[in-house]
C-alpha cells in the first residue's frame, strides 16, 4: 500500500510474488503512471465501461495487453510474447509471432518483389521528390511491395485464433520518430529505400550523415555528425528507432544504453523484412464473456 509513482518499486521491473498499489486520480492519470516507465512487458485493465477500455487499449505502452482477464499465461499464436522499451530484446519481434523466425535470417535482394499494390499518394510524392537524387525501377517496386504488406499485414489487426469467448488481436504500432544513419559507403539508393519504408510505415524520420556526406533532400531534417557524436546524443534524441545498416559496435552499444531500437540489416526491396523494424508489435487479449455468456462484439451492435 502507499507506493508512490516515483518510487524505486514502481519504476523497477520486479519478478516476484509482490504487489504494490499506487493511487491514481482517474483513468487518464493511471495510464500516465503506467506508461511512465522504462519497461513495458505486460499490462491490464478491468473495466465494464467500453470508453475506458478503448482509451486504455489505445494508449497502453506494453507488448502484451490484457482486458478483463489475468495478465499472465501468454499462449503461442493467441498472445505472442514480448515487451516494449527495455522489456524488449533485439529488433522486437515477439516470440510465437509471425515475424520472430525471420530475425534469425540474413536477407539479400535477389529479384524484385512480386506482391505489389499501387503506393499511396504520399509515397508517390516521395518518389517524385527523390527522383532528382535517385530513381530506379527497384525503388518503385519496393514502394509497391510496402503498399501490399501494409494493406495485408502491417496496417491491419489480426486474430488468427478467432475465439468467440476471447479476442486475441495482434497488431503493429508505429514508432513516433526514427533516425536513419548512413555511413560513407551507404549509397543513395539504400538511403532512399529506408526513407520510403519509413514513410510507408507512417513514421516521421530524420537523416544522420557523416561530416562531408551530402544527400540533397530538403523534406527531412539532416544531421551532419560523426558516429561518435551521434552515439553521445542518442540518449536525449527521443528516437524510438535507429535504422543503421552495418553500424560500428559503439553505436550499437549506445543505442542499447539509450533504450533505442536499432535495426542493422542492409535495406531490401521487399516490404516484408524491411517494414517490421518501424513497428512495435502488440498482442491485446480481451475476455469476451460474462459468467459464460458470450458478449456481442462492438461491430455486432452497430
Q: How is this structure best described in words?
A:
It is built from 9 helices and 13 strands. It has 302 residues and is an alpha/beta fold. It folds into 2 domains: 8-98 and 156-173 and 280-288, no CATH class; 102-151 and 174-279, Rossmann fold. Strand 6, helix 6 and strand 7 form a beta-alpha-beta unit. Helix 4 runs antiparallel to helix 6. The mean pLDDT is 92.
Q: Briefly, what is this?
A:
The protein has 302 residues and is of the alpha/beta class.
Spatial order of strands in the largest sheet = 8-7-6-9-10
How many DSSP H or I helices?
A: 9
CATH superfamily of the largest domain: NAD(P)-binding Rossmann-like Domain
Please count the beta strands (DSSP E, at least 2 residues each): 13
Instruction: Provide the succession of SSEs.
Output: HHEEHEEHHEEHEEHEHEHEEE
What's the shape?
A: globular
Whole-number total of structural domains = 2
Roughly how much helix do the residues carry, as a percent range? 25-40%
Query: What is CATH's topology name of the largest domain?
Result: Rossmann fold
Q: Measure the end-to-end span.
A: 42 Å
Instruction: Output the CATH class name of the largest domain.
Output: Alpha Beta
Helix/strand/pairing category: alpha/beta
Named at the architecture level, the CATH assignment of the largest domain is 3-Layer(aba) Sandwich
Q: pLDDT under 50 segments (min length 5)?
A: none
Beta-strand residue percentage: 15-25%
Please tell me how large the radius of gyration is. 21 Å
Reported for the largest beta sheet, the result is: 5 strands, parallel
- Average pLDDT works out at 92
